[in-house]
Automatic annotation (TrEMBL):
Pfam families reported in the protein's UniProt record: Topoisom_bac (PF01131), Toprim (PF01751)
Any one Gene Ontology cellular component term annotated for this protein: nucleus
Organism: Pisum sativum (Garden pea)
All residue ranges annotated as the Topo IA-type catalytic domain in the record: 170-459
Similarity remark: Belongs to the type IA topoisomerase family.
The protein's name: DNA topoisomerase
Catalytic activity: ATP-independent breakage of single-stranded DNA, followed by passage and rejoining
Function, in words: Introduces a single-strand break via transesterification at a target site in duplex DNA. Releases the supercoiling and torsional tension of DNA introduced during the DNA replication and transcription by transiently cleaving and rejoining one strand of the DNA duplex. The scissile phosphodiester is attacked by the catalytic tyrosine of the enzyme, resulting in the formation of a DNA-(5'-phosphotyrosyl)-enzyme intermediate and the expulsion of a 3'-OH DNA strand.
Domain called Toprim: residue spans: 7-152
EC category: isomerase
One Gene Ontology biological process: DNA recombination
GO MF: DNA binding; DNA topoisomerase type I (single strand cut, ATP-independent) activity
Length: 459
């Protein structure tokens, strides 16, 4: 098909992604776009070749979902039908008013194109948005050749590979999202109307809210989660605390303080605890009865998934899940990490694991370790253990570009980038090795023990 140039409409999920991919493919970091109908969604133009086919590339974007699912007009008023009727009421997708300009841009550009290439995020939600774009574009140009670009990182090598290996979009993934959206709409709308009208009839809610219209919203996911929170709150409130007593023992030396745990743990009988305590005070000499030493291994973590990223960011940096994903998304759009929304914790056999480490060799903090990791003589390298999860859309989260810190980064950007890099270096390393020593002592017939570890090898 080489020879005659074709005009290709490329559509990304966000304006920033469209600009980043256009910069990579055009090899022009300063590429400037022209305005479309929507002033937020620029159109970038440049020439390119896809598998020997000369192309005039038009690159634009949407902003998330282009369409919304809604009931037919006669069912939208609250008292137009019984809430139960919403489970069978007709629904349809349409473009809301605030996205009509994006729709007009797609229609105008699609009319003069021969190909449509979809650069939406490579997950089910992105696949669904892709088919929304297809519906709009094919409505004005049914002869479009439709292709899908699959990528997980905004880096040159992956974008080049993606554009030269275009695939068909996955209608099954898109249909799965349509089904979920319809279930959410029907359950949410029917239960929201039902409980709001029921409670308004049973209680004078408007007086509490100063006459404002009150909606008791129901979400298929949020409401059951709220139920778990309330149930746990009731359990805590119903708990009746009971006093208990324990005996603490410590030994101070020039090397520090060793704290010993009481073998009985604790007692709920105050008198018994006091008697045992007085026995220990009267005969305070401690006799070492046993010393055990053994090697302990701390295994590397599984490759990083979204849930694990959120957990660790919360634990180490006290960042909320929402803010963690906002920062991670910005790092992804800057090309520094792979796509941050993934359930996968298992690297594909096709992934060049060593190349990812090579990128980090110049870093002032962990660069030396990256160099040692790549040196076969150190014996530090170990292929990562898979966690058994694969969403078939994206690899685990990993660094895609070296950075010692960008000028526009906040401390949270630095923290998340460092977390992603260190986690990756850890998961391709051998287990950390430690020596654990347990000492047991006897004081007046009561057993106490202390445990300590020293590192032999650690990442």
């Amino acid at each position: 098909m080489a020879g005659r140039s074709v005009t290709v409409l490329n559509v990304a999920e966000k304006p920033s992604v469209a600009k980043a991919v256009a910069q990579i493919l055009s090899r022009n970091p300063g590429i400037r776009g022209r305005d479309g109908r929507s002033r937020y969604n620029k159109i970038f133009e440049f020439d390119y070749t896809i598998r020997d086919q000369p192309c005039k590339m038009l690159f634009t974007s949407v902003i998330g979902h282009l369409m919304e699912l809604e009931f037919d007009a006669r069912y939208r008023k609250w008292h137009s039908c019984d809430p139960a009727d919403l489970f069978q009421a007709p629904v349809h997708k349409s473009v809301p008013e605030d996205k009509k300009d994006i729709k007009r841009t797609l229609e105008e550009e699609a009319r003069r194109c021969q190909w449509l290439v979809l650069w939406l995020d490579c997950d089910r939600e992105g696949e669904n948005i892709a088919f929304e774009v297809v519906d709009v574009c094919t409505a004005v140009n049914p002869h479009l050749t439709i292709k899908r670009a699959r990528f997980s990182a905004l880096i040159a090598s992956e974008i080049y590979q993606s554009v030269q290996n275009l695939v068909e979009p996955n209608k099954w993934f898109a249909d799965a999202v349509d089904a979920r959206q319809e279930i959410d709409l029907r359950i949410g709308a029917s239960f929201t109307r039902f409980q709001t009208m029921l409670m308004k009839d049973a209680f004078n809610i408007d007086t509490v809210t100063d006459g404002r219209n009150t909606v008791l919203s129901y979400g298929p996911c949020q409401f059951p989660t709220l139920g778990f929170v309330v149930e746990r709150y009731w359990e805590i409130q119903a708990h009746e605390p009971e006093e208990f007593w324990s005996i603490n023992c410590s030994h101070r030396s020039d090397e520090g303080t060793a704290n010993f745990s009481w073998g009985r743990g604790h007692l709920f009988d105050y008198t018994c605890a006091v008697i045992i305590y007085e026995m220990c005070i009267e005969e305070p000499t401690a006799t070492v009865t046993n010393v055990r030493q053994q090697e302990k291994l701390k295994y590397p973590p599984h490759p990083l998934s979204t849930i694990e990223l959120e957990k660790r960011a919360s634990r180490y940096f006290r960042m909320s899940s929402e803010h963690t994903m906002k920062v991670a998304e910005e790092l992804y759009q800057g090309g520094f990490i792979s796509y941050p929304r993934t359930e996968t914790d298992n690297f594909s056999s096709r992934t060049d694991l060593h190349a990812i480490v090579q990128e980090q060799q110049a870093h002032p903090e962990w660069g030396i370790y990256a160099q040692r990791l790549l040196n076969p003589e150190t014996g530090l390298w170990r292929n990562p253990r898979g966690g058994g999860h694969d969403d078939k859309a994206h690899p685990p989260i990993h660094p895609t570009k070296f950075s010692a810190g960008e000028s526009g980064w906040s401390q949270n950007h630095r923290n998340i980038y460092e977390l992603v890099v260190r986690h990756y270096l850890a998961c391709v390393s051998k287990p950390a090795v430690g020596a654990e020593t347990t000492v047991e002592i006897d004081i007046a017939g009561e057993l106490f023990s202390a445990c300590g570890r020293t590192r032999i090898f650690a990442v």
